[in-house]
Amino acid sequence: MRRSLHLLLLLATAACAGAPNPSAQPAGSAGYELPPLPEPAPIGAAEYAARRSALLDQVGDGVLVVFGGPLPAFDYLPFNQNPDFRYLTGIMEPAAGYVAVKRGGRVVETLYVQDRDPAREVWEGGRLGQSGAQQRTGLAARSSQELYTTLDSLARVHAVFHTPVLPSLDASPGANLAHAQQVLTRLREKHPSLEVKSVQGDIRRLRGAKSDAELDRIRRAVYISALAHREAMRSAHAGMNEFEIRALIEYIFRRNGAEGPAYGSIVGSGPNSTTLHYQTSDRFMDNGEMLLIDAAASYAGYAADVTRSFPVDGTFTADQRAIYEIVLAAQKAAESQIRPGATWNALNEAANEELRNGLTRLGLIDGPAAEYDCGTSRCPQYRMFYMHGLGHGVGLAVHDPDISQTPSGFGPGSAVTIEPGIYIRADAFDHLSDTPGNRAMIERLRPALERYRDIGVRIEDVFVYDSRGIERASAAAPREIADIEALMSETGLDAASRSADMVEWFRQNPGR
C-alpha cells in the first residue's frame, strides 16, 4: 500500500502503512514528520504494451513511428531519452526507434536498437542488443542501423505515417532540425505522396492519465525533494553562498536514489528571489533576506516540482510575513477547488482573488480590479507582481500533460503543481509605458514598492489525485510559517561539513 501524507479529503481516503523509511537523512522534529515509503510499484512490459495498444487504437492504417533520442555528439555528454519513446517502450538507450505497421486491424510491431559492440560499450556502457531488447519488451527487435532503410521501404507501400513529430517545412541545409524531423523530412522529399499525421495529441492524452505505478514514481520524486527542502531550511544561514545550498539539495537528491535534479535548480536570495528562473546561484546571503528554492528530484524518469521560500535568518519579518501569507492563502484557495471535473479556470480565479486582495491591502496595487497602461491595451496591476501560470502537470517531463488540462477536468490519474507567487522587483515600474496614467500610478504605489522590494515568494506543491482522493504529496516540506521557523531553529547537515574559508575563496575571486 502507498504511504500516507496529508490528504485533502475531497474523496474518501483510507489510512495505510508502509515499509520502514529507507532515508539516511534525519527528518527533524519540527512540523511534519516524514512518513515511510511502501514497496515500489513496477512498470512492466504489460503496462508498456497496453500504452502502445491504446495509441494504436487511435490511429488508422499506416505506419506508426516513434524515435528515441539520438546519440549525444560526444560519449561523455549526458543522454536524455525522448519522453514519448520512453512512455511507449521503457527503453533508455539512444538511437532507438519503434515502428508499428497497421493494416486491416492487424498490427506488426518492431523495436530498433543499437547492436552489441564491445569496442563501444567499454566507453559508453553495455547495450541491450536485439536479444536483450526483445527479452525486456516482448517485441521483435532489429538493428537500429536498419531503421531508415525500413522506413524508406514502408513509405513505398504505405500512404500514411503517424508520428509525434512532423517533418519540417524548412529543409534548407542550415535548418536546425531535431533528429526525427531530419529523418521524416528526408522521407517526404523522397516520397512526395507520403502523408505524415501527428499523433502528439493522442500521446499527450494518454500520458495525461497516470497509472498507479506512475503516481508511485512521482510520489517518490516528491518525497526525496521534500527531504532536500527540509535540509536546506535547517542548514541555511547568513554568510553562506547560494551555491552551497544548491549543492546540498542536489547531494540529497542523489544520496536518496534520485537520478538528479528534474530541472535546473533555482536558489535565489534577496533580489534574486524575484527572478523567476534564476540559475546563477553565486550570491552570498544576508540576514533579513528571503531565500527562494525551486528544486526537485527526478526518480526513475518521473519529475517532481517543489518550491519553498523562507527567511535566511530563520525568522520572518513583518513585511516578509505579509507577502508570504498572501501567497499561501492563494495556494490554499486554489487547492480547495480541486474536485472531480474541476477546471484550471476555477483554481485560477480562487488564487487570483487572494492575490489581488492581498496586494491591495499592502498598497502595492490600487485595487483588485485596477489596471495600468501596457502598450496599446490595459493590463491588471496585480500582474506586475505575479507573472506566471498557477500550475502544470508533472510526470515524465517537469511540465507534463495532465488530464486536468482536458475538458473533463480533474480526476483520478492526475498529478499537478499549484505554485502562486509574488515578486516585488525593485525595477517593477522602470519599464512600464511612459503615460500620464502610469506616472500617476507609480507615484501612488512607489512607497509600498520601496517597503517590500526584493521580497520574492513562491510556494509550490505537487498534488496527486488517485481513486482515493487528493493528496498534497509534498506536505513533508513545511509551508506554514510556524513550522518553517521551528525547523530552521535546528542544526542542519551543513554545519559540520562546511569549510567557510574555502567558500570565501569565491568571494575574493568569483571567477567572472
Detailed description of the structure:
The protein is of the alpha+beta class and 512 residues long. It contains 15 helices and 20 strands. It has helices spanning 45-57, 83-89, 118-124, 129-137, 147-157, 179-190, 200-208, 212-235, 242-255, 318-335, 344-361, 436-452, 481-488, 494-497, 500-508, and strands spanning 7-8, 62-67, 97-103, 106-113, 140-143, 160-163, 195-198, 260-261, 266-269, 290-294, 297-299, 302-303, 307-311, 371-374, 377-380, 414-418, 421-423, 456-458, 461-466, 469-472. A 6-stranded mixed β-sheet has the order 5-4-3-2-6-7, sandwiched between helices. A 4-stranded antiparallel β-sheet has the order 1-20-19-16, sandwiched between helices. It has a 3-stranded antiparallel β-sheet with strand order 8-11-12. The protein is globular. Mean pLDDT is 90; it is low at 1-31.
Number of helices: 15
* Helical/strand content category: alpha+beta
Low-pLDDT windows of residues: 1-31
Tell me the overall shape.
globular
Q: State mean pLDDT (0 to 100 scale).
A: 90
Estimated share of beta-strand residues = 15-25%
**Order of neighbouring strands in the sheet with most strands:** 5-4-3-2-6-7
The counted number of beta strands is 20
User: Major sheet: size, sense and barrel closure?
Assistant: 6 strands, mixed
Distance between the termini: 52 Å
Could you estimate the helical fraction of the residues in percent?
25-40%
Gyration radius, to the nearest Å? 25 Å
